[in-house]
Specification:
The chain is α/β, with parallel strands linked by helices and about 250 residues long. It contains 8 helices and 10 strands. The protein has one domain: Alpha-Beta Complex (2-enoyl-CoA Hydratase, Chain A, domain 1). Helix 2 packs antiparallel against helix 8 and helix 4 crosses helix 8. This is Enoyl-CoA hydratase/carnithine racemase.
Amino acid sequence: MYDLASYQDVYRNIRFERHDGILQMQIHTDGAEAVWEADPGCLHEQLGDAFYRVGHDRGNRIVILTGTGTEFLAKVAFTGAAMMNTGTWYRIFKEGRDLLNNLLEIDIPIIAAVNGPAFVHAELATLSDIVIAANTASFADKAHAPGGVVPGDGVHVWWQMLLGPNRARHFLLTGNEIAAEEALTLGFVAEVVPQDQVLARAWEVARDLAQKPDLMLRYSRVSMVQRIKRHMLDDLGYGLMLEGMGIFNLLGK
């Protein structure tokens, strides 16, 4: 088991704050909006490891996941493409499984406070039990098909569950955006609020949930993600390998 002190200052791109059992995880890059990087030691690696520790800290009763500034996660900076080889891809393959599997292993409710555009790994927000979006938020998968990369790192599993197969395939193959109000209509966002109120609203919901019995919260989360975990178990690793093969082909290797 872990306690907050053992991981609070470990990750340079994740800021932790906890009050009354409610843990806020805020992703950032140098204190500003988070930039998704997959090089060793970057956010791709940090989040999967952090989710494991958060899930094994009994001091946590609810998690709020949010971004920084005006974006949840909208930019990518990957400098390691030229050095890509099978060993590098194994690292990404393992981190990719840890990222989603460890997120789903967290046995307490997760609230996403989507403070702006979520164009990279938007599934991290939408896999949350309660998704509260800023009116400036929008959702897309711009890190894969728009750049010629196979969308195989779990987005192929989750978005088809969330949107249905046809809408999801269009979403993943085009990189088209779904604005917050449309996301509310589609049902994968619970609330849309002004951008400057999104985090406060997440804390309000979290404090309300925190009044409920601890084991009720934990067993509810476990029961509600079981089906998602089963689909990830079947298809996440396969999709990651297909994504890797596509990247090697793209690089001419």
